[in-house]
Amino acid sequence: MITVRSGKPWGHMRSFRKDPLSFLQMAAKYDDEIVSFRLGHKSVKLLVHPSLVKEVLVSKADCFHKSKPFQELEPLLGNGLLLSENPTHQKQRRLIQPSFRPAHIKKYADLMAESTRCFLQDWGEREERWISNDLMELTLEIISQTMLGVDIENGHELVGKPLETVMEIATKRIRSVVRSPKSWGTTDNIAFKQAVDQLDGIVSKIIENRHVNKSNAEDLLGVLIQSQETSTEKMEVEQLRNEVMTILLAGHETTATALTWTMYLLMTNKNIYQKVQAEVDRLCKNDIPAYEEVNHLEYTEKVLLESLRLYPPAWLIGRLAIKEVMIGEYQFKRGQTVMISPYIMQRNSRYFEEPERFNPERFVKGKLQKVPEYVYFPFGGGTRVCIGKHFAMLEAIIVLGALMKNFNFYFNKESIIKADPLITLRLKQGLHAYVERRK
User: Fold this and answer.
1) Measured over all CA atoms, what is the biggest interatomic distance in the chain, rounded to whole angstroms?
2) Where is average pLDDT lowest: 55-59, 113-117, 224-228?
3) pTM for the model
4) Which of 25, 123, 167, 353 has the most CB atoms at less than 10 Å from its CB?
5) Do 317 and 47 contact (CB within 8 A), yes or no?
């Protein structure tokens, strides 16, 4: 274990707050399995060996909880699937899982395609667009239609903006040495509460309308409400709200972020761009990829997987040891904070030749070649692996295929491209591009 020392009372907090990705990349350059550093008064261990990552996420996962800083999202997501611990997490995941199994997800493909078709029909023949916002709007529409059976009009205004407020303020608090109580009337606390209240109102209305209409829809909301009404362990009203909020927000944010980075990478790598467009043109009969065509878009899938390697939306995973545990040859005490970064592991030169280069050919049939397990894990792993993994990949291929089939994209070279590591790894100023409808 290597310890990166600092003589300052706040440790490495300032460097971490200023540029978390650069700081973690610097720490990972030490040729060791674990790198220890201090953020404020807390000692943090960054795991940079895949076998140790697997132990924490899989074989000894029951020795860890999610780290406390991410509980800053608790006012928004409550005790939903993303933040809850066992036994609540296990019970809720068992209830929600069937809605995300591949066989069930197939039913959603038509809704994904139709939402995409309707969204794109309003685009002009030639215009400049804020692609990152467009993708947030579209993925919100898709998750709303498929999982909740609703259509949220003006999604960016109603959901996107308050979500950005929540993420920015939560990130600021996570990186702070000293956090003011949330009850204090600071500017940030007031803005945070207003944003959460706005999102709460939207989710409450969605649930209320479903109860009033008494729909027997088989979407996720229908499953949750049916469980609430018939299960011997009835779901509380607040828990239903928490799960709907988690699915609504986490279910569109990460996919939109991944697609935004993919579009940036394609526009700045013309050869790869042309290969994707040629594949879509060759294999897709209509303007929007059909479910039966998705599995044949192998190169398009490779591009998405390689984009997830370079820019995983879930760029940092935090864990807190709840008991003493051996990880590899190292003893971790109760209360010890552990960091695992897919962003750092997936750019590690020990495992990847030219790790910074966008190269979809690294993947063969959806898998990396000659790379140990838990070097590449953009969806996490173990019992907390992303429940929507298959849903997200199907959605991403349909949306990306539709974009490339219907439009040509030209990168705005005046754009400033910088990663913004909030709760998810966003593009700091969004992505702007010139868009031209194909003839």
Assistant:
1) 63
2) 224-228
3) 0.94
4) 167
5) no
Tokens coding 266 = 């394609």
Least confident of 135-149, 220-234, 355-369: 220-234
- Residue 118 is labelled as binding a ligand: no
Q: Domain count of the chain?
A: 1
Q: Please, which residues have CB within 8 angstroms of residue 296's CB and are 6 or more apart in sequence?
A: 283
Give residue 24's pLDDT.
Answer: 95
**Cα–Cα dist 37/16, whole Å:** 10
Residue 15 lies in a domain: no
Question: What distance in Å separates the CA atoms of residue 316 and residue 381, rounded to the nearest whole number?
Answer: 13
Model confidence at 29, in pLDDT bands (50, 70, 90)?
A: confident
Centre a 10 Å sphere on the Cβ of residue 177 and count the other Cβ atoms it contains: 14
Phi, psi angle pair for 216, to nearest 5°: -100, 30
Using alpha carbons, select from 219, 183, 212 the residue that is nearest to residue 96: 219
Task: Please choose, from the candidates 40, 39, 42, 44, the residue with its C-alpha nearest in 3D space to the C-alpha of residue 2.
Answer: 44
Instruction: For residue 96, give Cα distances in angstroms to 61, 80, 102, 378, 387.
Output: 20, 11, 13, 21, 9
Domain around 423 = 49-437
pLDDT value of position 213: 78
Q: Is position 75 within any domain?
A: yes
CA gap 224, 286 in Å, rounded: 35
pLDDT band at 230 (very low <50, low <70, confident <90, very high): low
426: number of CA atoms within 13 Å, CB side? 21
Q: What is the CATH number of the domain that holds 387?
A: 1.10.630.10
How many other β-carbons are positioned within 10 Å of the β-carbon of residue 206? 19
Phi-psi region of 366 (alpha: psi -120 to 50; beta: other; left: phi over 0): left
- Structure-token pair, residue 250: 């986490």
Is 12 part of a structural domain of the chain? no
Contact call for residues 308 and 424 (beta carbons, < 8 A): no
* 406, part of any domain: yes
Q: How far is CA 61 from the centre of its chain?
A: 20
State how far the Cα of 55 lies from the Cα of 57, in Å rounded to an integer.
Answer: 6
Please check the confidence at residue 232 and state whether its pLDDT lies above 60. Answer: no
CA-closest candidate to residue 137, choices 120, 162, 118, 154: 154
Rounded Cα gap, residues 391 and 203, in angstroms? 21
Higher pLDDT, 104 or 130: 130
Helix (H) or strand (E) holding 36: strand 34-39
Listed in sequence order, the residues at least 6 apart from 183 whose beta carbon sits closer than 8 Å to its beta carbon are 189
Name the residue among 171, 166, 227, 226 with its Cα closest to residue 192: 166
* H or E element that contains 182: none
The answer for residues whose C-beta is within 8 angstroms of residue 357's C-beta and 6 or more apart is none
